[in-house]
Amino acid sequence: MAGQSAAVVSRTGGNPFLKAVAALSTVAGWFSAAMIVAAVLITCQMIFIRFVLNGSTIWQTEAVIYLAISSTLVGLPYVQRLRGHVNVDLIPLTMGPKLRYNMAIFTLCLSTIMVAIMLWYGFEFWHLAFEKNWKSDTVWGVRLWIPYASLPIGFALFLLQLIADLVAVVLKIDKPFGLEDA
Questions:
Q1: Taking the complete model, does pTM exceed 0.85, yes or no?
Q2: Measured between alpha carbons, how far is 134 from 15 in angstroms, rounded to an integer?
Q3: 51-88: per-residue pLDDT in tens?
Q4: Distance in angstroms (rounded) separating the CA atoms of residues 171 and 12
Q5: Confidence class for position 182, pLDDT limits 50, 70, 90
């Protein structure tokens, strides 16, 4: 549907917990952006080496892939804070304030549970790679626990931001789905 939503950045209302989580999410967003910039610069360097100097590259492709994936995972809490994830607000817009509040609590709780499960398995996967000292099957042979660390880090920060969103709605600091009552 075409149109503008009234959703805004999640509010903190002076709450120290919400402010701390917002700061962490913002820092994660900056790290995510830095990883994208690094991936672009490495790609440019790789193109220069291959096509101008006619040389071979060893680590660049793998580094760009890991940086792109890590930036996505670490950027999750920042995008959640900005309410940048896909949001279908057609149903909440048609609801009354009480029903919208209940739906927001339900969806935030369900999202929190799902992300907690992803965090659990992400941590388990990272820990296995760390314990077994897994390395990539490439010439570079990067220790895989390093790029895999973005799984538990990204999902932990995302979970923290979801909990902060839930707290903000429960404490009436923020509106359900960021939508003002009509």
A1: yes
A2: 42
A3: 999 998 989 999 999 999 999 999 999 999 998 877 77
A4: 10
A5: low
For all residues of the chain together, what is the average pLDDT?
A: 90
Return the C-alpha torsion angle 151, 85, 12, 92, nearest 10: -130
Single-letter residue type at 180: E
What's at 181, amino acid-wise?
A: D
Buried b (16+ CB within 10 A) or exposed e, 111-147: bbeebeebbeebbeebeebeeeeeeeeeeeeeebbeb
From the DSSP assignment, how many helices (H) and strands (E) are in the chain? 7, 0
Angle at 84 between CA 29 and CA 38, to 5 degrees: 35
